[in-house]
Amino acid sequence: MVGFILKRLVQSVFVMLAVAFLAFSLFRFVGDPVSQMTGVETSLEDQARLREELGLNDPFALQFIRFAGDLVQGDFGYSFRTREPIGEMLLTRLPATLELGTVALLISLAVGIPAGIYTALRPRGLVSQSILIGTLIGVSIPTFVIGILLIFLFGVQLGWLPTYGRGDTVEIGWWRTSLLSVDGLRSLVLPALTLGLFQLTLTMRLVRAQMMEVMRTDHIRFAIARGVPWRRIRYRHALPNTMIPVVTIIGLQFGGVIAFSIVTESVFQWPGMGLLFLESIRFVDIPVMSVYLVVIAFFFVFINLLVDLIYLAIDPRLRVRESA
Amino acid sequence: MMLARLMQTEGVWLFSRNPAAILAAIVTIVVVAGAVLAPWIAPTNPYDLSSFSLIDGLLPPLWEQGGDPRFLLGTDDQGRDMLSSILYGARLSLIIASVAMGIALVLGVSLGLAAGFFGGRLDAIVMRVADVQLALPAILTALLIDGISRGILPREVHDDLRLAVITLAIALSLWVNFARTARASTFVERNKDYVQAAIMMGQHPLRIMLRHILPNIVGPLLVIATVDLASAILLEATLSFLGVGLPADSPSLGTLIRIGMQYLLSGEWWILWMPTVFLVVLVVSINLLGDFLRDLFNPSLR
Amino acid sequence: MLSVAGLTVRFRHRTGAATAVEDVTMTVARGEIHGLVGESGAGKSTIGAAIMGLLPPAGEIAAGDMRLGDTDLRTLSAAQAHHLRGKRISMIFQDPQTSLDPLMTIGDQLVETILAHEDIPAEAALTRAVDLLEEIGIANARARIRSYPHQFSGGMRQRVVIALALCTNPELIIADEPTTALDVAVQAQVLDLIRKLAETRGIGFILITHDIGVIAQIADRVTVLRDGKVVEQGDTARVLGAPEHPYTKALMAAVPPLDRRLRRFAVPRVEGEAETTDLTAPAREAEDWLMSGAGGGASMGPALDIEAITVRFTGERRGLFGPRESFVALDDVTMSVRPGTVMGLVGESGSGKSTLAKVIAALVHPAAGEMRLDGAALAPMRRRTRKDPSRRVIQMVFQDPYSSLNSRHKVLSILTEPLRLYGLERDEARQDRLARAMLALVGLPAEVADRYPHQFSGGQRQRIAVARALLSRPGLLICDEPTSALDVSIQAQILNLLKELQTKFGLTTLFISHDLAVVRQMSDDITVLKDGKLVETGPSEAFFDGPRHAYSRDLLAQTPTVRFR
Amino acid sequence: MHRSQPHTTVLALSALLLSASPAISETFSWAGTTDPQTMDPHAVNAAPVLSFLNNVYEGLVRRGPDMDIQPSLATSWEALPDGAGWRFTLRQGVTYHDGSEFNADDVIFSYERAISEPSDVKSWFSSITGVERVDDYTVDFLTSAPNPLFPGSIANFMILDSGWAEANAAEMPARDAENHATRNANGTGPFVLASRDPGIETRLTPFSGWWDTAEHNLTEAVFTPIGNPATGLAALLSGEIDFISPIPLQDVTQVEERDGFKVLAGLETRVIMLGFGHDHETLKYSDETTDANPFLDPRVRLAVAQAIDVETIDRVIMRGAAEPVSQLLPAGLSGYSEENAERPAFDPDAATALLAEAGYPDGFSFGLMCPNDRYINDEAVCRAVASMLARVGIEANVNAMPVRGYWDELRADNFDMYLLGWSPGTFDAEHPFRFLAHTPTERLGTWNFGGYSSARIDELMTPILQEIDPDARQGMMDEVAGILQDDVAYVPLYTEPLIWAMKDNVEVIQRPDNFFMLRWVTVN
């Protein structure tokens, strides 16, 4: 079990290194950093000087090590476009994206799991069928279309909810949250829904499949044969056994959430990292792109480590390892 | 071959009593046919500049007031026939999606097979690479690849390669699925006696993987292929929406939708909704087929 | 107490309905153990499910009635039926590994079951659970009750399962193959336990099994089923001792006796095969081909010597930097198989017998030790090249006939594979001929070559597997539990087939089985393994007449036998 | 969104100050597509930045509602004898937002800063040889040759407080790393930078100590960049913002039809035109014609002009909001040539004939370069042009790309024909002439990508720049315009419309250069 965690840690480090390397090559070889930083009117000598300053003439390996080192120390360099320190840029955007992603994920779980259970327990029922078809259509409509539709329905036509941005935010230290003000929460609804919908369908279908598998296992059949009350069978026996694989998937889903938050943020003008990333792509702001890359990878890896721990917590077979 | 057999027995029977699947199949066939035959059945060729005229711009669909019999689904801001654009667009989207899916399939399955069969270090490496890929979700990968190619390729080259870039990007974000599934099922098959027998008899690993294992893991792969085809189409659309998709003179469904977005409010609703509805219908039916296959290959869910 | 009359169960299929159980009538009295015996597809389990009211959706009770005491089981509402389950009828499943919820302590599972049926405080339920565990022989139950299923061994787990079935004092317990997944030693204990419970608590048992030995050991009365119909019913001693119905007779004849070695089994004419492989023309052709391989004349398989073979499996890392746990599967095993004879290899699960086979077949690499084939060194896995001649000489017949044949390939291509691989026959037409001939030799019609494996029964598949092995002109044949997945009558046929081929071609054979009775029928010599160590090895008859080692004696003692003559 | 703490006090303060103004309004929030990437007036020479900073910083001169030059930090200015340069008399008693005094040193400092190496606005001072401090409130800008237009050309040259800049180590515009001036500002302008959240929102509050009397009645102004046009429009219609610019043309009617909203559609001064590769020996992007460049033949260029139906482009793509033009600048601006007001009529047949006559009876193919995010519906226009040209038999391979990099492509001569929009910075014909018509040199014709060259125009350039007498000047202007039209050096298409959408209760002044001046905004 310790070995298990150790292994995952090593793997995570590997992943991070690989991504950092990607990011670095991106930063180093896509376009010329110097010509990016300097205007058309900068003289060649100045460029050469800058090149030297930035250490772009040093051996590749050395540069990478420096790059990685800076990252580890939280020095992310400066944006080509706005000249701002990327660390700060991301930090100001981070809360927005995390809050959006988390809420979306919560929505997807809060709705997806029950729906999955329901459709698993009544697979032939009319409701289940319609839910299934519904979600199927849900995944088939591009996220951005859904987003725009929601905006025009609830924002413009009904005027119930804000159409863009985060609304009022409250600052707790450097963390700027929109969870503590009514306006903020209202602005969160539409983006979170848009983002959550896709994950929701995934979660639901997964839970459904797992649950149906579990309901067929011997220990459930035995529980039935022992006359254990149905709800206990479903929620005390079947559900936990269902959740084990589901938990792991949720970790992977986080990747999806981040990815789609790019789309959602661009639709709702949500001031998160995704929006920043899109802009950096539009203006070929390589440093921002590469750092964003690293940050995302970090979160992904981190979440999945977390998931592994949860996994250990809920599965006794991994927790205790002696056998009579 | 194995599919063929499946179809003539179990499959067909289940299929025949699954209206959703039948409907989906029909729709898919019709759409795909329409897309493939676009050059022959489309009223006009949207790529041929002289074939349309700005004069016909923004005409509503036939049934709408002011519709023009020449343009069943109306025209866009350039005076292009929507129907033709959609057919050609679907064609492009399907080409991109299926090529990307194909690449992902070959890449992922071969890696997965090898990893699952040989295990050990190879397996570890492949899976770590997969992890890295997973850490960079589909859209991100696609955006990056596009961004990179913008950076390193001269512009006109990049524009010529745009199709390739998009396809590659999508493929890269899809291969992991195949790899993981192939690996998992290979692990299972590898320990079955028939593979053990083959190994014991000293057959060539390549032969064992391709002749023996592969045919036995086609099922789950097929399911993934279907679902991924759908998500590939969506991904392409999303990329186009984010502006890294295909240029407007060779519009894919996604590009059409992106263009249509400008007319969401303006009253020329058909420019947005015709392609969107088309896309959704297509994807839904492909997904339905995917579901059907999944149930087919996973009897316990029946 | 339980009376079933004229029970008929139908299953709806895509091709109409099939009758799984037809007009079955039986009764179970308090404290009676009623054996329900029959081969796969006989409908034993369906009867159990019907009584429990747990038929799968496709199944429906078409006729007959079932009463438990004065309650009519058929008229119960779903809710009533569910309440009755556990309260009055309970069930024991085959595999203790999977019948318990892995995420719940056995205590919780016991308590939950008790509380489900009785309105008593949780503490009371807990104490009863503990007592119960004590009663069914789980030491230090008070502590163990807080452990999770995976912390118990197979036998202990089956005891827990039984405890769960018992904890609400049901009148009737349906035990569906309760010992099939267990080793003989454990099986004996579990059976004793059931016996005891029947006597002390007066619980009626329906004991569903395919193993006549088990029935013979503990059942008071027995019902023999075939194709869903009752063939014979009555006191165990009577039915098994003096069977009236030919099927029962055949069944009994097919049961390998532990006390003597038969030349061959008198097998009932079931399935489509020719009873003996009386040599048809093609069969003879195949035979000649096999003979011709070894330079004409009655060939002799090679001698196999195994010296100090040790196999380690490395497992999880222990601590952060601790060493990997490594588990010794085979510990310094030395034995040898005389040319052209059958060596029986017996031992409980985990004794390492299959590992040994895999080492010889180069599927597992030994940590130490040497192997010799006719005196010539036999390279271990990592050093055995694909072109190594021994690859052809050593062939294997696997336990599970369902997974040993690639279901995606036609039988023909499965069979011709060795011919191509070892370049024994270059000519396609000839390969085809030979493959079909070989089918004839193992007693299958030639045309089956054009079918796919899934179109065959287990027995037929095993015959195909044998044919495949023969088609590489083997000298050493390894049979890893070749019959343990088969019904007794089929087992008999396969054993006959193997015997014949072995004697005919003088194949050196390593015959692995957990069933001493089967081994006795097959082997000239015998080797006993326990926890990877060699217990004893020597001539078979001597072993069965007087095993030297204590462990061997227990093994013999615990193997259920059928003696009613 | 995030409220700044001193908000309420500011409110009270400004309320007190604006007691003159009609009604007390609350926060005014407006949106645009792009965020000003810096608050440093010399770091980036781009419309979004300059437009925004004009509310915070001020120059020596400023432009009025109809682009007329008004005194700002300079009360008056006069040309030094024999074209030695210009003398500016500075306004006294002007204070910066931080309260410090404005004087000549700041002007000189700002000049030094503006021509420093990292600065992006050096070009404004290409004609300046030096700046001299006469006294605390008088400064001389010295030129080598007479430069009558100089005062008009520096309306966007904004003055920083030298003290503040030095105190915050912002003596130079930021280049690789940001400096204090990137996110902070200390100008003399009507609005104070209250809070800055790059890419998210920027808050301005009225400057109590402004030297001029405020015409606006705002207590706070919030700018939010909204990239997605649909979202932006939604934000306006849902009442979350008061003003947005631009909105998609096709949505104009929608907005107008809704009550509570209005659209201000004025004409911008920007002229959209097609340019040719006059100095290209061959076509770069032709599928067949690789040995020659047909566009060298004026008849072919004229054919192009005649083949394009500007009216239809205006009707369908520009929704009738554009105005066809015949010259490089819209009618009404100084230097516009009345006698060349006619543009070649739309006449496909004539065009076909011309092409045949020029030796291309069955046409040819070529590359049309086009931005896709610079001008209103720019890509759509290019495609329309392409399809119109296709009808007279010449096939344009449209290559649309983001404006980032577009100019580099043009400078690299990667085009056969290109789309260009030009707004005369000085609001005088000399501006386009100087940049587009003059043969490319170090300082002149710098945007004449096609390398069009006319000896006559070149020799007229200097006089035009130096001539003071209006009639004589206009004479020369007319001649230049005539030459350009006869040569069909460019094919002017139309002037771009300015589309501003706002709530009914918002009153703004739409200046032709599309700068949004808060000081003219009133909310009733």
Topology:
The complex is a heterotetramer of chains A (324), B (302), C (565) and D (524).
Chain A lengths: L1 H28 L3 H5 L6 H10 L6 H13 L13 H36 L4 H15 L2 H15 L12 E3 L2 E3 L4 H34 L2 H8 L4 H39 L4 H10 L3 H29 L1 H4 L5
Antiparallel strand pairs in A: 1-2
Chain B lengths: L1 H15 L2 H18 L1 H4 L40 H37 L1 H16 L2 H15 L2 H36 L2 H9 L3 H37 L11 H9 L7 H29 L5
Helix pairs in contact in B: 2-4, 2-11, 4-5, 4-7, 4-9, 4-10, 4-11, 5-7, 6-7, 7-9, 8-9, 9-10, 9-11, 10-11
Chain D lengths: L6 H11 L10 E5 L14 H7 L7 E3 L5 E3 L2 E6 L5 E6 L13 H11 L13 E8 L2 E6 L6 H4 L8 H6 L12 H4 L7 E7 L3 E6 L14 E5 L3 H9 L5 E2 L7 H6 L3 E16 L21 H10 L2 H8 L5 E2 L23 H11 L6 E7 L6 H14 L3 E7 L4 H6 L5 E6 L7 H8 L17 H12 L3 H18 L2 E14 L2 E2 L14 E2 L1
Parallel strand pairs in D: 1-10, 1-11, 14-15, 14-16
Antiparallel strand pairs in D: 2-3, 4-5, 5-7, 6-7, 8-9, 9-10, 11-17, 12-16, 12-17, 13-17, 18-19
Helix pairs in contact in D: 9-11, 14-15, 15-16
Give structural attributes.
heterotetramer; C: 565 residues; alpha/beta; Rossmann fold; 2 domains; 6-stranded mixed β-sheet; 20 helices; 36% helix; D: 524 residues; alpha+beta; D-Maltodextrin-Binding Protein, domain 2; Dipeptide-binding Protein, domain 1; Dipeptide-binding Protein, domain 3; 3 domains; 11-stranded mixed β-sheet; 4-stranded antiparallel β-sheet; disordered N terminus
Description:
Chain A has helices at residues 2-29, 33-37, 44-53, 60-72, 86-121, 126-140, 143-157, 182-215, 218-225, 230-268, 273-282, 286-314, 316-319, and strands at 170-172, 175-177. With 324 residues, chain A is mainly α. Chain A has a domain at 92-162 and 189-282: MetI-like (MetI-like fold, Orthogonal Bundle). In chain A, strands 1-2 form a two-stranded antiparallel sheet. The model of chain A has no long low-confidence stretch (mean pLDDT 82). Chain B has 302 residues and is mostly helical. Chain B has one domain (24-42, 70-301): MetI-like fold. Chain B has helices at 2-16, 19-36, 38-41, 82-118, 120-135, 138-152, 155-190, 193-201, 205-241, 253-261, 269-297. Chain C is of the alpha/beta class and 565 residues long. Chain C folds into two domains: 25-59 and 69-233, Rossmann fold (3-Layer(aba) Sandwich), CATH 3.40.50.300; 282-315 and 325-558, P-loop containing nucleotide triphosphate hydrolases (Rossmann fold, 3-Layer(aba) Sandwich). Chain C is built from 20 helices and 20 strands. Chain C has helices spanning 44-52, 78-87, 106-117, 122-135, 141-144, 154-166, 184-201, 212-218, 236-241, 246-254, 281-293, 353-360, 390-393, 411-421, 428-441, 458-470, 488-505, 516-522, 540-545, 550-558, and strands spanning 2-13, 16-28, 33-38, 59-68, 71-72, 89-92, 172-176, 204-209, 221-226, 229-235, 304-317, 324-337, 342-346, 368-373, 376-377, 394-397, 476-480, 508-513, 525-530, 533-539. The longest helix of chain C has 18 residues, at 184-201. Chain D is an alpha+beta fold and 524 residues long. In chain D, 28% of the residues lie in helices and 22% in strands. Chain D contains 16 helices and 19 strands. Chains A and B meet through helix 1, helix 6, helix 7, helix 8 and helix 10 of A and helix 5, helix 6, helix 9, helix 10 and helix 11 of B.
